[in-house]
């Protein structure tokens, strides 16, 4: 492909009003031609933010509450069984976006979450002169970003983090045999794909401590939902990272903050951003209150359960878990940022897995 491809950026958003403006701004500057966001189960002002963005730029959205229950055969035929079972909302949203994208309007769809940012070392026009867009599926490796010291920090070229053995993909539109196996793997029957070294995807998995607390909350945490109020598939927060974002991407961040402020002003979304950020901080505060309530509950359960033979807390289990996590953080600190299972990390370290092996 010699002409620059027309790329549609597609994402799924739940309570992402505070982050959508930068995500949209960054990728429009990268050169994507359109953006679509599937909004689900949201109680912040995401749709108001998207309405304002859509008044000035090619940004559209669709509210898809309940799409995970959609068993349209066309959707199911596009999705691998494991992807559908593990992530019904994500998988069916991706398939719906693909099926509803006109290949006469867009050549590729770039599927990213709202905390993911594609960095390219050349313009899309320049990359079109290489072989990259000869492939129907193009993967880019994750760069897992360290936590920020200041809440709601913007991206910058000084970003620290770790390269992660996972990828996200861009897929050619209009392929009747496109199959989505996960949010990390898509394939056609021809089997042709490319893992490109022309770009990385910044994954802002942590952000600041306050934002991290908001991220680990399930829906709206409340005192009636203590035990199940948190996402437990996280490895903690850190502001450390052994790698810097490669310097070849620095051009993307020239005069970045000033340009972003101008973008927000042109869309008239400053107040909506403040409202969305307040929502994030409220969620973080709710998590802090719930942790305090859990501590109090544990104290009270010791008294309430006395003499019953039941134990609500095992010191030995806690000690075993604490020692395990401290050992992992000491020996494999990068795993706080990376999504690699501990045994896979050991295999990478021992050379059993090659560095060009990517996980799902």
Helix content: 25-40%
| Helix-strand category | alpha/beta
CATH fold field value of the largest domain:
Spore Coat Polysaccharide Biosynthesis Protein SpsA, Chain A
Compute the number of helices. Answer: 11
CATH top level of the largest domain is Alpha Beta
What is the CA-CA span between the terminal residues? 29 Å
Order of helices and strands: EHEHEHHHEEHEEEEEHEHHHH
The total beta strand count reads 11
Round the mean pLDDT to the nearest integer and report it: 89
CATH architecture of the largest domain: Alpha-Beta Complex
Overall number of structural domains: 2
Backbone CA Rg: 22 Å
Oligomer: single chain
Strand portion: 15-25%
Shape: globular
Low-confidence stretches: 220-226
Biggest beta sheet attributes: 9 strands, mixed
Keywords: Coiled coil, Transferase
Pfam families: Glyco_tranf_2_4
Coiled coil: 277-304
GO molecular function, one term: transferase activity
């Amino acid at each position: 492909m010699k002409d620059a491809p027309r790329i549609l950026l597609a994402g799924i958003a739940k309570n992402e009003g505070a982050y959508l403006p930068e995500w949209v701004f960054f990728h429009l500057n990268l050169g994507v031609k359109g953006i679509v966001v599937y909004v689900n189960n949201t109680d912040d002002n995401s749709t108001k933010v998207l309405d304002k963005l859509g008044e000035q730029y090619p940004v559209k959205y669709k509210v898809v509450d309940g799409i995970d229950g959609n068993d349209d055969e066309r959707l199911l035929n596009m999705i691998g069984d494991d992807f559908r079972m593990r992530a019904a909302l994500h998988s069916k949203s991706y398939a719906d976006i693909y099926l509803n994208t006109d290949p006469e309007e867009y050549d590729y769809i770039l599927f990213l979450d709202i905390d993911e940012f594609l960095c390219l070392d050349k313009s899309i026009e320049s990359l079109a002169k290489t072989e990259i867009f000869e492939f129907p599926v193009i993967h880019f490796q994750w760069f897992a970003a360290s936590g920020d010291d200041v809440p709601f920090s913007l991206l910058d070229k000084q970003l620290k983090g770790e390269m992660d053995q996972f990828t996200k993909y861009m897929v050619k539109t209009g392929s009747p045999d496109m199959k989505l196996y996960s949010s990390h793997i898509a394939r056609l029957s021809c089997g042709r794909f490319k893992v490109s070294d022309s770009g990385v995807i910044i994954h802002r998995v942590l952000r600041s401590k306050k934002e991290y607390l908001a991220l680990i909350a399930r829906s709206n945490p409340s005192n009636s939902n203590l035990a199940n109020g948190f996402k437990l598939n996280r490895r903690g927060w850190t502001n450390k990272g052994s790698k810097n974002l490669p310097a070849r991407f620095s051009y993307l961040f020239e005069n970045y903050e000033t340009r972003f402020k101008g973008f927000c002003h042109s869309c008239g979304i400053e107040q909506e951003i403040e409202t969305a950020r307040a929502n994030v901080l409220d969620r973080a505060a709710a998590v802090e209150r719930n942790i305090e309530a859990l501590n109090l509950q544990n104290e009270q359960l010791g008294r309430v359960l006395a003499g019953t033979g039941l134990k609500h807390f095992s010191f030995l289990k806690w000690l075993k878990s604490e020692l395990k996590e401290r050992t992992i953080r000491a020996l494999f600190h990068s795993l706080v940022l990376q999504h690699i299972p501990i045994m896979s990390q050991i295999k990478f370290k021992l050379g059993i897995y090659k560095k060009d092996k990517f996980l799902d």
